[in-house]
Amino acid sequence: MQVTVLGAGSMGHGIAQVSAMAGYDVVLRDIESELVEKGLEGIRENLQGGVDRDKVTEDEMEATLGRVEGTTDLAAAVADAELVVEAVPEDMDLKQDVLSAAEAETGEETVIASNTSSLSVTEMASALDRPERVVGLHFFNPPHLMDLVEIVIAEQTDDRTEAFAVDYVREIDKEDVVVRDSAGFATSRLGLVTGLEAIRMVEEGVASPADIDEAMKLGYGYPMGPIELGDHVGLDVRLHIAEHLREELGERFKPPQALRRKVRAGNLGKKSGEGFYVWEDGERAGMSGDWGEDDA
Ligand SMILES: NC(=O)c1ccc[n+]([C@@H]2O[C@H](COP(=O)([O-])OP(=O)(O)OC[C@H]3O[C@@H](n4cnc5c(N)ncnc54)[C@H](O)[C@@H]3O)[C@@H](O)[C@H]2O)c1
């Protein structure tokens, strides 16, 4: 079976990797060849990391890389795909355009999936001729390390598509949770509640970002605190999702001013080098502002 991933960014290259590791032939498509190359390089680096930690053998690495092909040609990318997964930026118009263009080049049976973290899969599907073949496959970052895939069932998704999605997720050795299409699904909605509240607590001076994160790790068994997670995901991405959930679900998702200020200043978290923490070479190197020592 061939899986085609549209978008070779943070999520797309990881989705391509886990699909290829499960034995699928994979085509990774982006709009420019440098972006395709960057995605392929990301897969190579992840696999090399796995080899270095004895999680992946050299042979598995080579076999996986041999199953992934990169391209900028949409028609060629999707022509033989049984599953197309889009991982382009979180914008409804863009996603509808990308999925419609892909659908026009695929066979009738091809399942078309979106990796959206919060947008309505039902609305996305409504732009397509075969909306019953559309489903949400919400991977987590980074896909090669995170076990969960939320399967999002749109109003139009038929039983065959749902069963196909469940099979695929199990085939790539991930855990599935099936949710009905609703704003923020199960994970983004709850994750955001703690993320926004933690920022409000920083604003109120309850505790430093590092202490709030440490408290949730030690007290509640979180693998990563809610504020650090925001820096990982990207504060611009968090703000965007908060605004969307506020529109759909109400004022409890109103983004805190501190989050808006960070985004306006271009302090987007790990990817820009500073968010609520300072980041050096991808590692946490202190807190932003005068909160004192980051002794985590
Ligand atoms: N980053 C996360 O932690 C995370 C987690 C879960 C889900 N998501 C969702 O995954 C999706 C992608 O997010 P990301 O963080 O990987 O974004 P990203 O910006 O890292 O990557 C998006 C890629 O899509 C490419 N692209 C744009 N238009 C395209 C087109 N027409 N065809 C093919 N490629 C195109 C861009 O060039 C870019 O390389 C979003 O919907 C996001 O909400 C993100």
Automatic annotation (TrEMBL):
Residue ranges of domain 3-hydroxyacyl-CoA dehydrogenase C-terminal in the record: 184-279
Residue sites binding NAD(+) per the record: G7, A8, G9, S10, M11, G12, D30, E90, K95, S117, N141, K271
UniProt entry tagged with the keyword NAD: yes
Pfam families per UniProt: 3HCDH, 3HCDH_N
Cited InterPro entries: 3-OHacyl-CoA_DH, 3-OHacyl-CoA_DH_NAD-bd, 3HC_DH_C, 6-PGluconate_DH-like_C_sf, 6PGD_dom2, NAD(P)-bd_dom_sf
Keywords from the named record: NAD, Oxidoreductase
An annotated GO BP: fatty acid metabolic process
Signal peptide: none
Gene Ontology molecular function: any one: NAD+ binding
Site (described: Important for catalytic activity): H138
Protein name: 3-hydroxybutyryl-CoA dehydrogenase
Organism of origin: Natrialba aegyptia DSM 13077
